[in-house]
Amino acid sequence: MLSxxxxxxxxxxxxxxLRDQLEAVLDxxxxxxxxxxxxxxxxxxxxxxxxSLAEQNSRFKVISFVRNFGQTAAMMAGINYSQGEIIIxxxxxxxxDPADIPRLLEKLDEGFEVCSGWRQDRKDDSxxxxxxxxxxxxxxxxxxxxxxxxxxxxxxxxxRKVIKGVKLYGEMHRFIPIYASWMGxxxxxxxxxxxxxxxxxxxxxxxRTFKVILDLIVIQFMSLYMQKPIHFFGGFGLINLALSFLTxxxxxxxKLFWDTSFSxxxxxxxxxxxxxxGLQSIFFGLLAEMQMxxxxxxxxKDSYQIEDKINFD
Length: 313
Hints:
By secondary structure, this protein is α/β, with parallel strands linked by helices. The chain contains nine helices and eight strands. It has helices spanning 15-29, 46-56, 71-81, 101-109, 126-144, 176-182, 207-225, 229-257, 267-297, and strands at 2-8, 33-39, 60-65, 86-89, 114-118, 156-159, 187-191, 306-310.
């Protein structure tokens, strides 16, 4: 079974066209499918249009949030409530082409667990959208070790087993291939069609680039230190303690061999500063260790709130 997951935010004009395109492609595939449309607090006529689509076709399912929680939360809700063994997220703005879905599935049939779309001929503003995206993609690939040309393309195909249990926050939906790679999944990509936006306005801007960089730092930290935060904080603390003792030794040598008074140098303040930072970092590491254990042992909570669901059992 295929699960197509589509976050929706103010896309009322695009939804009927997207429905027609999806039905044409998915019906021709001959596979059982569901289309989960997640209304992320839309303020236009999207809720009414979504309800109409669900009424016309029971395979179109709707999740409505009480307010706007963001694309990542919408994607997470769609994954949590999906039933398919293959999950295919995509955008609702008609820039992704459903006709590329069979090609993504062909790659999964070759033995890959993830196939990512690559908008090779991207139809967006070259300065405001494309250039920051290229920079972000190179940065993400180099740091994560999972080399993709286009992390920002929503159109991807996943086998459920490699993203089962993944929890997403912030803007981290674009990093799902990295999570899948951590789970041992084979990742590949193919060029996909990208259309210019016809209706509505883009919800993306340059500020997302900075959010992506910050989320990437979180991803890298979680990769290396999620289960051993004391190694990061404690290591930083030990370095500062070592600097404190080295500075103390330097201060003593100045006094003994060059008859330099402690009071005429900033070294006493540096000793105290390095020592306090070192102790605090170790304490932060211990607190992080306790929080990590609480995280694993406590009940998981979702990052969104659902107001209504349609066509779900």
